[in-house]
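Reader question, answered in our methods column.
A reader sent in the components of a multi-part assembly and asked whether the whole thing could be modeled at once rather than chain by chain. We filled in our standard form and ran it. Here is what they sent:
COMPLEX SIZE: two components
ENTRIES:
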Amino acid sequence: MAQSKTYTFTGKGKGSKLLRLKLTTEQPITKDSIIQDIAINGDFFAHPEDAFDELEQYLIGKPVRDIGFWFTKGIDLFKLTVYGLLPEDLTAAVEVMVSQGDC
Amino acid sequence: MRLLTTGFNSAYWNMSVDEAILEMVASNAVEPTLRFYGWQPHAISIGYFQGIEEEVDREACKRMDIDIVRRITGGGAVFHADELTYSIVIPETHYLACHDILKSYESILQGVINGFNELGLQAEFAPINDIIINNKKVSGNAQTRKYGCILQHGTILISVEPETMFTLLKVPNEKLKGKLIADIKERVTSICALLGTSVSFETVQKSFIQGFARLLKEPLIEGSLTHEELERARILQETKFGTEAWNNKRL
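And here is the structure of the entire assembly that came back:
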């Protein structure tokens, strides 16, 4: 059975606020990896705040390659308004994680 | 609108009072409220979505007797030292409370801009949540919406100690991306730096009370926290803002 690893990304995307993404998947991470755990931290805004915690839980079990799609679905599902963080920021972050792999 | 000037208190108490007021305005127990306050001891507040370990040097804070508290609002980590902090709680039906969050920042922040005007400073709104003067940040703000009300609070920098600030906060280089100014210390300024003289907390507070008074259609009436608000704040301090469970929520 493949071991899990937590991958991290820190950077600013088009959403303009700082994103610190922590993603746990099987090792090594690929676009097909399944999200086992996730923390989307940063200085963005989301209302209601506690619904964002639910959105993170919702992303667990989803494939890494579709993180932007499921994030958008989650925003609708949990009736969130998010400022400073865009779905494509998450997509770009996981692309960096995948390209860097276990480097 | 009720006006509160609650002086200097701990980070845990300050955040507890803001939330207690939010709850009481929401239940119509008190009027919409504008509050001004300071921080003693000095403190760092982190945004709701930030990880404490990622943002703050906890050892340095302990060494320098700096409290650390998580806010109920998003946004970034803030070092609260020589500053005036305001909070405003209004129902979402209030004329300053636009449905559009960016617009409501802008409408409420006109009171802050007016406050700087009172001191002879020309400030402007820098979306999403900042006030700038001469392209430098002089006020950071954060907003949440709960129970049909808006709570917005923000800092008004009287003076800044960049060296201390960056000893306590972990600021990633990435945060500078897209900024024209290379040195992060050059992105922030203060009332004292802009005026070239020292200005007291009381003077600044008076100016921002005037600034908000110019914005509001209703009079500002000085008041105090009710017994219920004090009791609720005590409970929130004990069970939420003063607890490791809350402050370590996103490590």
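What stands out: Chain B has nine helices and eleven strands. The domain at 2-91+137-187+216-247 of chain B is CATH 3.30.930.10 (BirA Bifunctional Protein; domain 2).
Send us your own complexes using the same form.
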